[in-house]
Design goal:
cell adhesion molecule binding; single chain; about 230 residues; alpha+beta; about 35% helix; about 15% strand
Amino acid sequence: MKRMNSKFVGALGLIAVATVGLTACSSGTESSSSESMAPSSASSAPSSSSMASESPSSSAMDPAANLVGAGCADYAKAVPSGEGSVAGMAKDPVAVAASNNPMLKTLTAAVSGELNPKVDLVDTLNGDEFTVFAPVDKAFAALPEKDLNAVVADADMLSTVLTYHVVPGQIQPSDIAGTHTTVEGQDLKVTGSGDELMVNDANVICGGVQTANATVYLIDSVLMPPAKK
């Protein structure tokens, strides 16, 4: 790591962080038949039933049900409860959830305008459904500070790197393997399965972490968008 290659440069600004919105609708247990009945006394039943049908009941009941990654146990030990835990993150939109996770402080600073006021992706990330590949703080710590500062100072480069970590729509671990087009416009590839998933050359530490509008995969290095021809 004596010299920084192009991968590190793109990596720096990393992250757009943060992960999926499981609706966590604990009250949606009414049968679909009650929805079709539509008696006036049960006017609220249709919305509860429809919400329940849109989300897997197992995930709604337990945000940790679909987690994958060799580092999930360590994450649970480091953040066993509170807003930054797996259960806590499921309650907030992704940018807010990421800001509560002590493993994603650098990523949060990058997407919130704290590192560069011209790059603030909070409203964008919180405003739709996404899959977010979120480099943890240790991934940033491995980068030379001088190079990181140079990328952060370049708003276009920072935005490019961050949006390369975000894919439209929520993708669960069972469907994540394959090639996905990012918000940045270029593709990234997820390989492997179970606890041995990789995103390009980065390892998934813990994936399938739910937020109110996104699915998050914590990864151990920043991703570099391919050079455009």
